[in-house]
Amino acid sequence: MNTNSTLVLDFEKNIVEIEAKIEGLKLLAKDEDVDIAQEVNRLQQKLEKQVRQSYANLTPWQKSQVARHPDRPHCLDYVHALIEDFTPLCGDRLFADDEAMVGGIGRFKNISVVVLGQEKGHDLETRMKHNFGMAKPEGYRKAQRLMDLADKFNMPVLAFVDTAGAYPGVEAEARGQAEAIASSIQKCLRIRVPLISIVIGEGGSGGAIAIATANRVLMLENSIYSVISPEGCASILWRSADKVKEATEALHLTAQDLKHFGVIDEIVKEPVGGAHRDPQTTINRVGEALLRNLKELLPLSGEELKKQRTEKFLAMGRNLPE
Length: 322
Known about the structure:
The chain is an alpha/beta fold.
């Protein structure tokens, strides 16, 4: 269990207190000749129990906090761990390269694939470099270019979704943000190769669906996927940031709700305590889920894949459960 988190969530305070006691005992043992094995073992068992209890019944707002945790594995973590011989490809061939949207070609379990995804960054330098995962029009046009490449060379597309939304700045709107997102959705529907998307953190608005209009849409257990952020919803409906928890409940943005509504196809279970506590296990589970779904889609023809994708999204509004 990874206990080196840089952010303490409000419902994790008891967990952090136990972790601090364990670290304190280990430091004491270094300074003095003290046998702490029995006490550390007791505290470790107490820690594991507390983590299970804390994460057993998270509210939608708490899940939103976990989904945004900075220590969760991000797009490039998955790429570096799962994709062999990854070669990044840059630029939209029209304006510029957008480092919020990363992509390239590589091999996933000996299958040649095209990879797309929003990268948030892990520290201030990389977050600034990747614009906190909020892509501009050139990012979505780069995604379209790479999907065309995948279609031309018959390579499946794997998309890692993790964004609060498309970049809302004036320059992005001036360069055609809405058109770029709409065209990216259209491109998702038109390609004749398997397209699998997985929400690994935040799936925010059109910025997410631009690369998530897929044959299979997966979500990590504690990720969120919504038309608007809880904060944005609260400010519009209640005109108050104090109503963010009510907004989160109303949006039904958790993986469990969206699986119930048929918006996503599969929930990938996270380690106890969330992906930020055990990134490697999370990455392994995502890899297994992607491979399983990819093997199911590879035998289908291009026309079958297009038809399945189109019918999947047309049916969403018709078949919502009560």
